[in-house]
Amino acid sequence: MKAEVLQNLDNPRQLEKLYRDNRAAFKKEFNALYPSIQEQPVAQIWNERLNFEGENISWGSGRELLFVVVAAFIAGLIAKIPQLFGLSPDYFYPRNIAFIVFPLLTAYFAWKQKLPTRTLAVVALLLLGSVVYINALPRNEQSDTLLLACIHLPLFLWAVLGFTYVGPEPASAARRLSFLRYNGDLVVMTAIILLAGGLMTAITIGLFGLIGLRIENFYMQYIGVWGAAAAPIVGTYLVQTNPHLVNKVSPVIAKIFTPLVLVMLIVYLGAVFYTGKDPYNNRDFLLLFNLLLIGVMALIAFSVAEASKSANRKFENLLLLGLSGVTILVNGVALSAILFRISEWGITPNRLAVLGGNVLILLNLLLVAYRLFKTVQDHQELAAVENSIVSYLPVYGIWAAVVVFVFPLAFHFI
Fold first, then answer.
1. What's the rounded Cα separation, in Å, for the pair 314 and 325?
2. Would you say residue 311 has pLDDT above 70?
3. Do residue 329 and residue 187 come from a single domain?
4. Distance set, CA 400 to CA 35, 150, 182, 356 (Å)
5. Cβ proximity of 169 and 128 under 8 Å
6. Domain check: are 81 and 218 in the same one?
7. Which domain holds residue 132?
8. Furthest-apart CA pair in the chain: how many Å?
9. What is the overall mean pLDDT for the chain?
10. Is the residue at 57 inside a domain?
11. DSSP conformation letters of 114-183
12. Out of the domains of life, which is the source (predicted)?
């Protein structure tokens, strides 16, 4: 490739094609060649393009920093509501834990995107209606529909956040793909913040313990709670103002875990058949099967979002195709199990919710697998794979809304 780069320095179109065909190899060969061609303006431009990295951390504008500080403080206040107003934590947190973070993240992107007043009103109505509705549901610890509503509410609020993130322009595949990448980067950044916070907590408590002061309760009730509540907000702020901080970590995580999860699933399915365990008559086993399915589906979506930035896309697409195929098998087992349980014992809110979720995931997986198969033959089809993921995101949000707002009423709050 070195010779091709040298020959095409005066041909921008061909140079760009070489770069897009294999970005990693192009960068390696160009950097090796650069000392001999650094006097040429074209080479200087390409050097800046390939190797420029911001050295300093940006803290954004003063207004943005103030917004984040206030939002983090409000998140801590929401988390402290049971202590401040004498409410039962067992009542408050299952219903409201998602409201500690999602409305504030939604407000952040609404402010950043400068949403029109009509869109802001819709978003505010969805958030306000959700908090009133979930807290108005009858208090019944044995209610399946209440539990389902509490489980699916974060997914619904996540969909509202995505709607806000995309902005006022017509929802494009690129913006939705950017939202998926933001979620992956946020997970990484929040994990780093929480890890650093946990280390600081241990050191602080240990130091005060050495001088005979026991501050564990005070520290965890105030500093710890506020820190945990603020972590996703601060993580979002850092990801948005300094995308270079984690944009190299997330693809590495996707590359590492995609083959590992594929191997794990193959071994796990073999172990299931070997041990004779099945999800047909074991409810807990079926639940774990579905949690596994959701986790793998999330990994596939995240990996597809990162695949477009990879130089060796064909091999990664083959891995994703294999992972999609094995996940379809897992989904088929879970789907047949829930259909078996419905045919034997009838419809319940739990079974219907699981059935609906499994059908949606299966349809999405089949579409993604088909697109990935086409991509293996022609890597230019990667955009179709991305679209098959991001175009389906609103469907999950709509299903979450049905489970949250329709199921309790349809099943009379049982």
1. 16
2. no
3. no
4. 56, 10, 21, 10
5. no
6. yes
7. 62-239
8. 77
9. 84
10. no
11. T--HHHHHHHHHHHHHHHHHHHHS---TT-HHHHHHHHHHHHHHHHHHHHHHH-SSPP-HHHHHHHHHHH
12. Bacteria
pTM over 0.70: yes
Nearest to 402, CA basis, from 362, 345, 355:
355
Task: Answer yes or no: is pLDDT of 169 > 70.
Answer: no
Q: What is the pLDDT of residues 31-51, one digit of tens each?
A: 777 767 777 778 878 877 776
Three-state secondary structure call for residue 247 = coil
CA distance 98 to 157: 8
Q: From residue 29, how far is each of 46, 273, 316 by CA, in Å? A: 12, 49, 22
As a whole number, mean pLDDT of residues 93-116 equals 92
Measure Cα distances from 374 to 270, 311, 323, 325, 385 in Å: 28, 18, 15, 14, 9
Tell me how far apart the alpha carbons of residues 42 and 10 are, in angstroms, rounded to a whole number: 8
| Other Cβ atoms within 10 Å of 150 Cβ, number | 19
Distance (Å, whole) CA 152 – CA 66: 32
Same domain, 204 and 269: no
Give CA–CA dist 280/344, Å, rounded: 10
Q: How far apart are CA 413 and CA 139, in angstroms?
A: 10
Q: Looking at this protein, which amino acid is placed at residue 85? A: F
**Based on the domain organization, do 76 and 144 belong to the same domain?**
yes
Identity of residue 75 = A
Domain assignment of residue 230, yes or no: yes
- Residue 304 is encoded by which pair of tokens? 């597809």
The pLDDT of residue 31 is 75
